[in-house]
Amino acid sequence: DHGLSEADPEVRAIIDKEKQRQFRHLELIASENFTSRAVMEAVGSHLTNKYSEGLPGKRYYGGNEYIDELEILCQQRALAAFHLDGKKWGVNVQPLSGSPANFEVYTAILNPHDRIMGLDLPHGGHLSHGFMTSKRRVSGTSIYFESMPYRLDESSGATSLLRCIGLVKDECVDMFVADSKFALLSHTGLVDYDMLEKTANLFRPKLIIAGASAYPRDFDYPRMRKIADAVGAFLMMDMAHISGLVAASVVADPFEYCDIVTTTTHKGLGDVARQTDSVGKEKKVFCWEPTGNSTSLRGPRGGMIFFKKDPVLGVDLESAINNAVFPGLQGGPHNHTIGGLTVCLKHAQSPEFKTYQNEVVSNCRALASRLIELGYKLVSGGSDNHLVLVDLRPLGLDGARVEKILEMASITLNKNSVPGDKSALVPGGIRIGTPAMTTRGFTEKDFISTADFIHEGVQIAREAKQSVSGSKLQEFMKFVASPDFSLMDRVSD
Ligand code: PLP
């Protein structure tokens, strides 16, 4: 049996190129992180060979003695990582990823065409929360269920004030907001809970979904619980983006208020790797290096569903969700992924993990402050978590152009729609996340430099748009390739 280099040099070469790209680039995609070598070992192990449809102790195939042991350990660690009492909460660790996990919840507790409300995609929500346009039901969620997304508050502080003192009526506010020039000036950028409440009272959803892909603030779970209770709806949180922050208690705890919590396992569950050098000085090491201790926690691509064990609204969530995962929507679990997940959950309660998650947030605040200092407009005016959303429209720019220019300079982030965008095809902003580079040892100072690099890229995008000259871009790219661009060198030593 040959190793990859011998068996398939073509694939080996592609993997090597991708590894180098990950090594060289500033990875600022808010939903990405770097797994540890230990996780990759488990993911590339013999676990991949085994079929194990069913749950521990109740499999449809023989030979699952050790797979049972692994899945039970994974469940125990998942509950411990999120500080949950196993008598009150259960977890299914088999979802293949975040979107399947969400759809499994929907099919578990809803009938076809039941009503749901999630945050609208152009306002930061995820496709799987029911995205649809006026022309098309885009997501499977909106095809099989009736979706009425809620949105962010786009009104300016001034309009809110006028509304408070009764000088304008809601229809006038809607008119103002419909005028994108007005929306451009200023908006709160926070979830419009008043509107959610009003709409929920009319729409009577059976499920309300908290959680987002591009929302820089915490959700108001007590308020959402109240709204859900008033209309007899389940409340679910999709904590995919912030699961690490939840585990480290750095943000509000959704488990206190929600009936069901879903997550991916490859985004926020990171932990910076630290090693002590020969003279006893602590240094941060690049994630692929084997660490002297085992404090790393960076997950494989997968999903989990946590559910309350007591019936909710007359539904036994445990059996409904387990049955929705298998046989409802999946077959054999990906045991190699469950292996990697079990490894990654081991240290979620360690002090190092908490330190890392605090650093993710403080780094993000430093990045946000510097961007504000440089004159950028951030959606909601800042960030409480791991990401910022920059509104580029006041500069006459769109996210796609800036994403492309920064990619040429080895800075990877993504274009993102921002509230008030006229078209989803030309998103007006960029999303910048701190988890991955914090894993690689970036500090607040590094993120201030990162903001400055992004600013340079944006200036070039503006110049390129005005067709002034391409020479500045070349200068910038030369600088990035030069030894002066030392951020990368420093973290890989
Ligand atoms: N939920 C949220 C909030 C997400 O941001 C994402 C992906 O970015 C998902 C679910 C979907 O996860 P996956 O891509 O693993 O299906």
TrEMBL record:
Keyword rRNA-binding in annotation: no
Pathway: One-carbon metabolism; tetrahydrofolate interconversion
Reactions catalysed according to its record: (6R)-5,10-methylene-5,6,7,8-tetrahydrofolate + glycine + H2O = (6S)-5,6,7,8-tetrahydrofolate + L-serine
EC number, UniProt record: 2.1.2.1
Keywords: Pyridoxal phosphate
The keyword tRNA-binding belongs to this UniProt entry's keyword annotation: no
Enzyme class: transferase
Gene Ontology molecular function, alphabetical: glycine hydroxymethyltransferase activity; pyridoxal phosphate binding
Domain Serine hydroxymethyltransferase-like: 4-158, 180-269, 294-454
Cofactor annotation: pyridoxal 5'-phosphate
GO BP of this protein: glycine biosynthetic process from serine; tetrahydrofolate interconversion
Record's GO cellular component terms: mitochondrion
Family assignment from sequence similarity: Belongs to the SHMT family.
Protein name per UniProt: glycine hydroxymethyltransferase
